[in-house]
Amino acid sequence: MEKLIITAALTGAETTREQQPALPITPEEIAIAAEECCQAGASIVHVHARHADGSPTQDKETYRAIIEAVRKRCDVIVQVSTGGAVGMTPAERLAPVTLAPEMATLSMGSVNFGGDVFMNHPADMEVFAHAMQQHGVKPELEIFDTGMITTVHRWLKRGLLKGPQHFDFVLGIPGGMAGTPDALMYMLSQLPQGSSWTVAGIGAAQLPLGTLGILLGGHVRVGFEDNVFFRKGELATNNAQLVARMARISVELDRPVATPNEARSILGLPRRD
Fold first, then answer.
1. DSSP code of 112?
2. How far apart are the C-alpha atoms of 266 and 165, rounded to whole Å?
3. Is 29 helix (H, G, I), strand (E, B) or coil?
4. Which residues are within 8 A (CB) of 212 and not within 5 positions of it... i.e. 6 or more apart?
5. pLDDT above 90 as % of the chain
6. b/e for 124-161, b at 16 or more Cβ within 10 A?
């Protein structure tokens, strides 16, 4: 079984300081959180940008500042969000891809998102995929429901996606697939051959689905975007605390944690020496 890749979703677009006082917001705070998570065992940081007042932004220059600040502190893989926040235009959401980060998310369909609708028009999705190819960015295919995996199969046949793909199963969003082992197992049964995958359980689903992902040979995402608690009623002290727990569980299960360069090898990215 290959080494475990832990992704730390540091901030997200929806989590607030009122919900989690330790939420990193500024580029420097995000960079510090990335370094702490890298030291705890993360090899990828999933990044959303915020304005100084905490509101979400896809501003290219803010992302540039985040990436540069992270690079000064550690060698973790920076994965930018193209999900942005509900209501943003496709052009806004795509802006950070032009910085040619190592990875970016590519949502494979629309989904009800709590009281909102996260829109991903098929034509916009194709533009996003083409832009990632143009800028040499590895997509992580964000999957909220199984119909999105069917879309991936269709895109592979059409040549819109090429080669082994990396998936992120986001389970437990109100409106998407449930955050349950049954849901994860069904999604795995639909994967294209040769794919790699990560599971991101929302809220209380984060710990059990992460542990199951380790056992099944997948990879794991944790962090304040998806869950602000360490255990029921106890806020996590920082993102790194959530990463460290997954790293401990993985080591106890005799599955070592991947370094950033080992993660690059698993995902088909160039090494950074």
1. E
2. 11
3. helix
4. 181, 184, 199
5. 94
6. bbeebbebbeeeebbbbbbbbbbebbebbeebeeeeeb
- Say which CATH number the domain at 253 has: 3.20.20.70
List the domain range (segments joined by +) for residue 190.
Answer: 6-267
Per-residue pLDDT tens over the stretch 121-153: 999 999 999 999 999 999 999 999 999 999 999
Q: Write out pLDDT tens, residues 256-273.
A: 999 999 999 999 999 887
**Burial of 229: CB neighbours in 10 Å, binned 0-12, 13-18, 19+:** middle
121 is written with which tokens? 């028009």
- How far apart, in whole angstroms, are the C-alpha atoms of residue 65 and residue 107? 24
Tokens 């990632």 label which residue?
A: 132
Domain assignment present for residue 273? The answer is: no
Whether residue 177 is predicted with pLDDT greater than 90 in this model: the reply is yes
Total domain count, the chain: 1
User: From CA 96, how far away is CA 230, in angstroms rounded?
Assistant: 31
Task: Judge whether 6 and 31 are in contact, CB under 8 Å.
Answer: no
Is 1 domain-assigned? no
The values of phi and psi at residue 140, to 5°, are -105, 120
Q: pLDDT tier at 87 (50, 70, 90 boundaries)?
A: confident
Residue 31 within any structural domain of the chain: yes
272 within a domain of the structure (yes/no): no
